[in-house]
Design a protein that fits this description.
alpha/beta; Rossmann fold; six-stranded parallel β-sheet; 6 helices; 43% helix; globular
Length: 194
């Protein structure tokens, strides 16, 4: 019960910190995705969701071969990261959390030191820690699955039916991203001289 109370304080702090902030930049998704060179994937904490998300991260890497992917994980899931991602993994330990369950300033400072073109949050629901990381990273484009509490922090949300599994929801997100990549490639081809 006390943990829920502390989490509620963390949420209030997060939402309070965004008061007055607006991001009204218009993004041409097709062209943008074809220019992405760095991406941060926010992985779910729950083990069953994590397994699904790691497979979809690999699908994204195949779609965007020119992009360097980094992965944000909780320490307890570190053994599940494939070898090719080990060097590009940002691990959150218990020491990186404050008593109210949000990342420490020191940890968020490390996130802010890196530049990411896009952040893709693969959590099926609102996740306080991942949302803090997204906010601090300040990527031009931040993507997640639809959730009302995510609205102030992400500028592209994909809505899937509630009845869909996490695998179906993330798969739908990956398919839309592939469509953006295809539309950007075709519009760039249209501009090439004959």
């Amino acid at each position: 019960m006390f943990k829920k109370f502390l989490e509620k304080i963390g949420k209030k702090q997060l939402f309070w910190s965004t008061k007055g902030e607006t991001n009204t930049e218009i993004i041409d998704y097709g062209n943008f995705f074809n220019q992405v060179r760095t991406a941060l994937i926010l992985m779910p904490e729950q083990l069953d969701n994590f397994s699904v998300a790691i497979n979809r991260q690999q699908d994204l890497a195949k779609l965007m071969p020119e992009t360097r992917f980094s992965v944000f994980i909780r320490e307890q899931n570190a053994s599940l990261i494939p070898n090719d991602l080990q060097n590009n993994t940002i691990r959150l330990t218990e020491n990186d959390l404050t008593p109210i369950g949000v990342p420490t300033r020191r940890f968020l400072g490390k996130i802010a030191e890196n530049h990411y073109d896009v952040i893709i949050d693969l959590n099926p629901d609102f996740d306080l820690v991942s949302t803090y990381v997204c906010k601090k990273a300040k990527a031009k484009l931040s993507i997640c699955l639809c959730h009302p509490q995510r609205e102030p922090f992400y500028n592209l949300q994909f809505c899937a039916p509630e009845s869909d599994t996490i695998d179906q929801k993330i798969d739908m997100m990956v398919k839309y991203i592939s469509q953006f990549l295809a539309s950007g490639a075709s519009s760039n081809a249209d501009l090439q001289p004959a």
